[in-house]
């Protein structure tokens, strides 16, 4: 483990936050996907089902913001879930221009079914990294994914002009 960490610390990846996060994301996506077993859903789709459930029928705009996606990417990601009968779009009762995203009974059952496998993947992650470091990593990444961080990042670019 020590040799691996020394190689990582001396690698080019340690100089680019974006590359490091992307590499880690791909690795975790593969590991969690493996831990979730044989399912026809990708990890991003499970995450989307979970976010829809958590937000309780969000508008597409709300869901895109929560997922840090643009609306067209969200639409692309929702298509197979709609096609497979796991998600449906419905007009918002207050604003007919807006569409609400909701889980179908099949979608709710599928999301519920996969939560246990996700919990096992999360348990394994925490066991390797440590519960405290794992929680700190999630807090840090949540901040990096926030609008507050994006605004501060943009402002830091203006200061360098």
- State the total count of DSSP E strands: 2
Beginning-to-end CA distance, first to last residue: 42 Å
Portion in strands: 5-15%
CATH fourth-tier homologous superfamily of the domain at 37-129: Winged helix-like DNA-binding domain superfamily/Winged helix DNA-binding domain
- The first-level CATH class name of the domain at 37-129: Mainly Alpha
How is the largest sheet built, in terms of strand order? 1-2
Radius of gyration based on Cα positions:
18 Å
Q: Kindly report the CATH topology of the domain at 37-129.
A: Arc Repressor Mutant, subunit A
Helix content: over 70%
Largest sheet features: 2 strands, antiparallel
User: Which CATH-level-2 architecture of the domain at 37-129?
Assistant: Orthogonal Bundle
The overall pLDDT, averaged over residues, is 88
How do the helices and strands follow one another from N- to C-terminus? HHHHHEEHHH
Shape: globular
Oligomer: single chain
Category from helices, strands and their pairing: mainly alpha
Low-confidence stretches: none
How many helices? The count is: 8
GO molecular function, one term: DNA binding
Domain HTH marR-type: 14-146
InterPro entries: HTH_MarR-typ, MarR/SlyA-like, Tscrpt_reg_MarR-type_CS, WH-like_DNA-bd_sf, WH_DNA-bd_sf
Pfam families: MarR
């Amino acid at each position: 483990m020590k040799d691996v960490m020394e190689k990582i610390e001396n690698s080019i990846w340690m100089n680019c936050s974006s590359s490091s996060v992307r590499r880690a994301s791909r690795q975790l996506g593969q590991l969690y996907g493996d831990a979730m077993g044989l399912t026809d859903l990708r990890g991003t789709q499970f995450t989307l089902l979970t976010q829809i459930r958590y937000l309780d029928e969000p508008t597409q705009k709300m869901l895109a913001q929560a997922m840090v996606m643009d609306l067209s990417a969200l639409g692309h990601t929702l298509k197979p879930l709609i096609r497979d009968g796991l998600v449906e779009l419905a007009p918002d009762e207050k604003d007919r221009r807006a569409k609400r995203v909701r889980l179908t009974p099949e979608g709710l059952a599928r999301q519920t079914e996969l939560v246990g496998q996700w919990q096992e993947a999360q348990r394994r992650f925490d066991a390797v990294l440590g519960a405290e470091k794992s929680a700190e990593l999630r807090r840090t990444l949540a901040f990096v994914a926030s609008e507050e961080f994006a605004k501060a990042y943009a402002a830091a670019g203006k200061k360098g002009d």
